[in-house]
């Protein structure tokens, strides 16, 4: 040791079991987006699941809010290296939207207002691992954080938790999304530090 | 297996403001980068503890030499050390370049509007330098929002009248002497003329604190810019 950054001490020790490699803890809630924040009124909001055959099923805001809701608390990890512990969300498990959907797809593309996309294996959205959330810490999710509703997939880097989500498109082949096409890792497991194409 | 960290040797530190510094490193094996990209910087304590943060590249690469802009954040774990603690001649590690979205490439010939708030001017400065080095014919405008004249980064570079670069400085707290605009936050009116000069095919790059980027991109959409032509990078 001592060959790099002489005199640096740092401070985030003791979080080894909660903090994935290369991350630092933050109390704030940083915002990262590739473009302007889209304006999405709940009056016209819809969420659609489209299968590989083109069959689709949609929910209005009121229909989504009428589904069984869950409160769920998670640590979230951004590829820009911040992690935030114990973030409280409320929303609908993705399982609820896929319950009656017939599909042979192994993958999904989350599509957002504003054109953002991100791809995931379908199994990473199922069995209580992902939600469509509309409430953060007791308040309606603000637009810059993805409101009125975003995807929440807390076990992957947070760019997979698409803001302003409007569609889940189920696919037979894996289709890289926005960041996945410009250098970021296709899967994005923070515990394996899958940040970029080189990882 | 994580991608390689490279040894980076601090060769020069220049003050930009009272709390901001530009740091030049030599990085053996540096592969080059695009204007607008960033790197991760990793520090290691004597006991092996490591901390990493992202910093924007402030200039095109000169061989193995790269330049970063660092704003010391009060109570920060990494930035105060980089700004004032790391001795010239000492090493850190860097990984990158990172990010292929918030970039300007010299082969892009369309007009460009850069809108920077505070330290958000750093990646825009890299674009301005790349534009000048390439002698690009593309029309460049910079709108730069800072609190006071003392908060101005890259004064020599951004004040001078370069070909194909118009600089419009907006002060939010205290304006420079002789300034005709009263200090205040950036408004749609501040951007209107710049937006109308930018042809439909142009690109806007917006970088700064979150509230600044949110306000500017809302103004741009209100002024009729297509969302798809606006690229943003937010700090915090």
What does this protein structure show overall?
The complex is a heterodimer of chains A (199) and B (236). Chain A is mainly β and 199 residues long. Chain A has one domain: Sulfite Oxidase, Chain A, domain 2 (Alpha-Beta Complex), CATH 3.90.420. Chain A is built from 3 helices and 11 strands. Chain A has helices at 61-65, 94-98, 178-181, and strands spanning 24-25, 46-50, 56-60, 70-77, 82-93, 107-112, 117-121, 131-136, 139-140, 150-152, 165-171. In chain A, strands 1, 4, 5, 8, 9 and 10 form a 6-stranded mixed sheet that branches. In chain A, strands 3-2-11-6-7 form a 5-stranded mixed sheet. In chain A, a hairpin with a 4-residue loop joins strand 6 (107-112) and strand 7 (117-121). With 236 residues, chain B is α/β, with parallel strands linked by helices. Chain B has helices spanning 79-85, 121-133, 155-159, 188-197, 210-222, and strands spanning 6-15, 20-26, 38-44, 50-56, 65-71, 91-98, 112-117, 140-146, 165-171, 203-209, 230-235. In chain B, strand 3 and strand 4 form a beta hairpin. The A-B interface holds A 1-13, 21-22, 24, 28, 30-38, 80-81, 114-115, 144, 179, 182-183, 193, 195-196, 198-199 and B 1-4, 7, 40, 42-54, 77-78, 81, 85-87, 90-93, 98-102, 210, 214, 217-218, 220-221, 227-228, 230-232, 234-236. Chain B: This is Ferredoxin-NADP reductase.
CATH class of chain A: Alpha Beta
Named at the architecture level, the CATH assignment of chain A is Alpha-Beta Complex
Can you identify the CATH superfamily of the largest domain in chain B? Answer: Nucleotide-binding domain of ferredoxin-NADP reductase (FNR) module
Secondary-structure content class of chain A = mainly beta
Strand content of chain B: 25-35%
CATH class of the largest domain in chain B: Alpha Beta
Q: What integer is the average pLDDT of chain B?
A: 93
CATH architectural grouping of the largest domain in chain B? 3-Layer(aba) Sandwich
CATH-assigned fold name of chain A: Sulfite Oxidase, Chain A, domain 2
In whole angstroms, the N-to-C terminal distance of chain A is 24 Å
Into which percentage range does the β-strand content of chain A fall?
25-35%
* Radius of gyration of chain B, in angstroms, nearest whole number: 18 Å
The dominant shape of chain A is globular
Q: Encode the helix/strand succession of chain A as letters.
A: EEEHEEHEEEEEEH
